Write a sequence for this structure.
């Protein structure tokens, strides 16, 4: 079984892009044709089914073009058990379509409790009464609790060729309140977190990266270069491109000369492209065409800066 | 509608104890009579039903004796959608039994995504196809992302008379790796987190406490006193008593002279008391008797140090 870092690097090279499509379904942003029933939001099961249908369409568009999708659990959990069921069915659909799946769950706990979350998300379970045994290839976690809150996730992940991304420097304005506090030695907290993540990650795979990655926001400018220096073997998951205002140029320090070392996640600017005036004409014929074009445009834009010319 | 802090203080005074019973069900620790079928673990729905049955028995025992239960979502999420359904049904059962419910979910995210988690957990929703619309009275969150990751939870909570507990200083050994890092001004990170939590909490209720509480471990000795000094109006949720090795004396600085200001959570040492040699005789007749006695013993022990003699 290949390590997660190697599987991800292989998929990036194959698709020639570090772009990852984020799936964050919100009822009132879905294509109008899917939400014609104005009482839909009162019915958790019906919304969950709609999210599944919408997500499957995104997956169909994304599968030939990118290496992975990032599915955000929060949007599904809002619809309770039916939502969780849709989340898991969507993971299965994405993996069956050949995509890697990152479960954006930002879980955090320690010891025995962390093991439960790790099994819930990262283990491919074998419940005989479920069609939803397939878990994501990697998840996001919050490492404020220290290594006791990381190792249970990483161990469960590694046992199944999967990975974990720990929050290091997030893309939101108030991330400075804790993450940029200066330590006695002059370094900010997030740099210490980056060094810990680098250390916890342990041995690297064939491409030189470990299975413990880091979430580092694109809106933070220099932070990406600083984290790269502190964590040379860590794969970055970079959110905040597009809707959140991060620029692609800021992301460059995250990448090595092979175009590896990071993935860039874009969600709203792709999956809701049919709501964007720029894609209005395409959307009129079929909302899926707008999403596909936005995905291609993102990929093309990234390709101006990050290239996969070399043979490996 | 009363604020969460006032509802919790009222309940503590009524039950004359800050003890909260944690419900963390694990299949192989359940009473043997409940797990006779050795294939039970292969069936997510069957395990979820068993957790619900077990949890309901704990609630029946706890309701006359304590103010609240803390239900740990991780143990339910391990069993996917059926587990999540059981978690929510158990919350409803506990609230119907007159208990306050803390959902131990340790969620973390920002902005729009945090709103989804907040609605998922804290909103009493109105899905017409669900019997599981009741959410917990409070949840735990991880505030490493700063106020962007706290305010959406707190706003949703406050709108429904509910509360939030942010991780400040956790009870695990490796919590020192981030939380005890010394800042340039000599304070540890967790003290800055405590001050932020205190500030974010805003106005206090009738008892002088805000609806944004703090998780502070009992295994950390002096940390409780330090956090109390930094956050005078913050209710502490103190785990780590019992199985994790925290001592009751260490908790005293968290409490005011009325016995308010903190709750003490004990899970395994109560709900699995029938596995403890000390309660073997009781357990032989009925496992519920062992749990009840362990709960009473915990309450009696706490009452030696924290008293509710005053009239309010």
């Amino acid at each position: 079984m290949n390590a997660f870092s190697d599987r991800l690097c292989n998929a990036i090279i194959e698709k020639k892009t570090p772009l990852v499509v984020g799936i964050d379904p919100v009822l009132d942003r879905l294509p109008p044709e899917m939400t014609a029933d104005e009482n839909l939001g009162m019915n958790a099961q019906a919304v969950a089914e709609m999210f599944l249908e919408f997500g499957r369409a995104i997956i169909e568009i994304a599968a030939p073009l990118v290496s992975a999708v990032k599915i955000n659990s929060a949007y599904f959990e809002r619809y309770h058990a039916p939502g969780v069921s849709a989340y898991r069915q969507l993971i299965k659909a994405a993996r069956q379509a050949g995509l890697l799946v990152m479960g954006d769950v930002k879980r955090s706990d320690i010891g025995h409790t962390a093991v439960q979350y790790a099994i819930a998300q990262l283990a491919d379970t074998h419940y005989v009464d479920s069609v939803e045994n397939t878990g994501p290839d990697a998840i996001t976690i919050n490492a404020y609790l220290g290594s006791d809150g990381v190792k249970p996730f990483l161990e469960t992940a590694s046992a199944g060729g999967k990975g974990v991304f720990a929050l290091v420097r997030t893309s939101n304005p108030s991330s400075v309140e804790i993450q940029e506090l200066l330590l006695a030695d002059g370094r900010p907290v997030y740099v210490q977190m980056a060094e810990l993540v680098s250390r916890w990650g342990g041995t690297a795979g064939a491409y030189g990266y470990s299975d413990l990655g880091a979430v580092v926001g694109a809106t933070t400018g220099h932070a990406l270069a600083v984290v790269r220096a502190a964590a040379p073997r860590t794969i970055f998951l970079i959110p905040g491109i597009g809707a959140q205002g991060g620029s692609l140029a800021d992301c460059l320090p995250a990448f090595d000369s092979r175009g590896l070392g990071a993935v860039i996640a874009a969600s709203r600017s792709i999956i809701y492209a049919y709501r964007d005036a720029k894609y209005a004409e395409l959307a009129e014929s079929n909302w899926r065409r707008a999403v596909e074009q936005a995905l291609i445009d993102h990929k093309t834009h990234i390709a101006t800066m990050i290239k996969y010319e070399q043979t490996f």
In short: The longest strand of chain A covers residues 100-107.
